[in-house]
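Quick illustration for those who missed Monday's session on complexes.
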Amino acid sequence: MNFQKARKNMINESIMKENPFDQFNLWYNEELESKSYLPDAMTLSTVGADMMPSSRIVFMKILTEEGFIFFTNYRSKKGRQLEENPKASLLFFWPRLIRQVRVEGLVERCSEQISDDYFNSRPLPSRAASLLSKQSEPLDDKEAFDNNVKRLAENEEMVTRPEHWGGYVLKPQLFEFWQNREHRSHDRFAYTLEGPGWKITRLYP
Ligand SMILES: Cc1cc2nc3c(=O)[nH]c(=O)nc-3n(C[C@H](O)[C@H](O)[C@H](O)COP(=O)(O)O)c2cc1C
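Prediction with flavin mononucleotide bound:
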């Protein structure tokens, strides 16, 4: 299906997976197979103590049974907001199949092990940049920053994960799957946590 074509047939509840993580993986893989560009880019929305929402794209780097893991600077704007209020929303927009997935939940820092493992898997220049970046603060001299990163990267033994950089895991309490269909007759399903399991509800689009 290309961008212009809406899905013709209604999605029946019975074909939605019982577990929203399984449903997410199914749609994610279908988007990947459709040669989508950056299907792992997700909009992360946070709200700090001032109650002003703030959104930005981050990459979903790991998906486990626990939740969605992304990596960032803990002192960045998002990091500060998450310390003040550990609730967040993720949004995936998948244009190839014209789908949207919303995920909401509580956010925690990942274990040191997960953050170290991911940090060490990154290319050296990226690691050096993460170490030196004061993400979200004013940068007066970009050239000086780039040179400092280059210089640091020449001494690999100095490039260890700083304590202000690491992963967060968003543990979902809500998923919502939206599929475009002809004549605005879109399909929309919410999964909410009910006791130990997930309850599926069709919503008006
Ligand atoms: C495609 C894309 C992927 C990105 N991935 C990340 C990421 O994984 N981690 C991150 O900290 N910033 C990432 N960014 C940059 C963020 O969108 C944002 O500018 C930065 O994290 C600072 O956000 P903040 O000031 O709200 O904390 C990405 C941006 C784009 C466009």
